[in-house]
């Protein structure tokens, strides 16, 4: 089968389109004929070697949309079913293997292409909003990187939930209209969001802030986080660690919460099934969606990575098998 592999960490040109053996399944596993995979920023970090050691040859990719090709005995899935999944050894390949507890059926009225935009970013966004941030309708919230995949979903889900005020941040003002169309009430840059948030809340601050950027953005977030507010930290796309002092939280009764979808897939996958069903339903009923920035063929995976790294896109970047 065709796949994109890398044998060393480095730039996008380290991704090689080649032939490899089709994987085999074990107990409670399913072989999926892939239709699409999405490209996530985590793929970039892993390709560069920023997410720990790699076992080469390495196949990148967190999620897949495709058709069940082969199942293990007594499986709850059947050949021919349409699914999204989190494969166990990457998704930049024509065939992938996934554990059954990390697979979810696609509704009949939802296309593979639309389904492929959602697994990682939408399931993550739903958990962040409802379970980690526990956002209320009366809240003012700040969503960093609001034009990105998770940010796009957080804005839409918050709007759908009737959240009082949604403030999104962007690295480039050219993305402001896109974020407003998603449902944000105000769009700021990373330089001015803290001041604007305080202005919008009569110096009270935001009730919940979603931070996937870290670095200096974390410090600025704490400057405009309300008493009893929650800072939800779920990434560091800036490449820098965010920091805070214990005095930043205890006397103000504020919380800092962390969440990782990768950790949850590994250690508590059962938590994802109910969320996946809800999110798939929202996509199937067109209550939320993620615009597709561009679709690349599998052999053009390096170009897909370069587009992600440029940050000159809106929505999701997909790879078609």
Automatic annotation (TrEMBL):
GO terms for cellular component: cytosol. The keyword Nucleotidyltransferase does not apply. It comes from the Bacteria. Keywords: NADP, Oxidoreductase. The keyword Zinc does not apply. One of its GO terms (molecular function) is NADPH binding. This is Putative Zn-dependent oxidoreductase BA2113.
